[in-house]
Amino acid sequence: MGISKNPIFVPGVWGPYFSAMVPGFWLNEGGQSVTGKLIDHMVQGHAAFPELQAKATARCQSIYAYLNSHLDLIKKAQPVGFLTVDLHVWPDFHGNRSPLADLTLKGMVTGLKLSQDLDDLAILYLATVQAIAFGTRLIIEAMESAGHSISTLFLCGGLGKNPLFVQMHADITGMPVVLSQEVESVLVGAAILGACASGDFASVQEAMARMSKVGKVVFPRHEDKRYYDKKYQVFLKLVEHQKEYASIMKGD
Questions:
Q1: What sign has the CA pseudo-torsion 132, 223, 119, 240?
Q2: Which of 1, 21, 37, 71 has a Cα-to-Cα distance from 156 of 20 to 30 A?
Q3: Is the pTM of this model over 0.85?
Q4: Cα Rg for the chain, rounded, in angstroms?
Q5: How far, in Å, CA of 199 to CA of 67, rounded?
């Protein structure tokens, strides 16, 4: 979600809507549908999922906290993101909402092996998280090319609680990611509106400044930029190839 003083029309991105989020500003909204469900789908559909469940339960951890720690274990000396050098995912298993606005698109995975162990599951999970972050990068680029100026991401919601998801968004977009001090920041937003309605604050902006605080800023690892730029090239090739395959199958 990006705001601007003047209306900006971005192909494939919703809006602009006036005063929809912050009074006096225009809002554009570009999203990816059911990203949390996609991660669940990839993890729960893997042959090693029962083993993951058992080990996470034994440690009193969520399956995603366990996967994150397992990735740290198997990455050895390299950055964790480099584990997917041969594994690439296009995340539109449910069609593309933004910026391509194409409900016919499907998910893609390239680089699969016969391995079905926990290492394989963890790396597929990582590649899926990266694919969602590359989808965010694609939306940001579309918004910037239309006239938006974006330099920082503000992240809230359930996936913001996953440190791997946050770090991959920072690394892949090349932007710092700001997290709210209050974990349930969406509820704070509702409270801000209530405080304005009751007259405790003169404006939404004043309430925002008084009631919300930055909790943590996650910075990108700029030394990994070249790697993610190359993976992004592959990411774009995946959808290009998918459209070519569809054209071939529709042809005479």
A1: positive
A2: 71
A3: yes
A4: 20
A5: 46
CB burial string 81-102: b at 16+ within 10 A, e below: bebbeebbbbbbbbebbbbbee
Tell me what pLDDT residue 114 has.
96
Q: Which two tokens stand for residue 208?
A: 């925002």
Using the structure block, give the residue that is written with the tokens 């041969």: 86
CA atoms within 13 A on the CB side of 28: 25
pLDDT at 157: 84
Provide the 10 A C-beta neighbour count for residue 126: 24
Q: How far apart are CA 102 and CA 112, in angstroms?
A: 26
Tokens representing residue 107 in the block: 């998910």
Tokens of 218: 């996650």
Sorted by sequence, the CB contacts under 8 Å of residue 210 that are 6+ apart come out as 201
Q: Do the Cβ atoms of 12 and 101 come closer than 8 Å?
A: yes
User: Quick one: pLDDT at residue 18?
Assistant: 98
Q: Give me the residues of the chain with pLDDT under 50, please.
A: none
Angle among Cα 240, 137, 91 to the nearest 5 degrees reads: 55
Phi/psi at 18 (5° precision): -85, 130
| Burial class of residue 26 (count of CB atoms within 10 Å of its CB; 0-12, 13-18, 19+) | buried
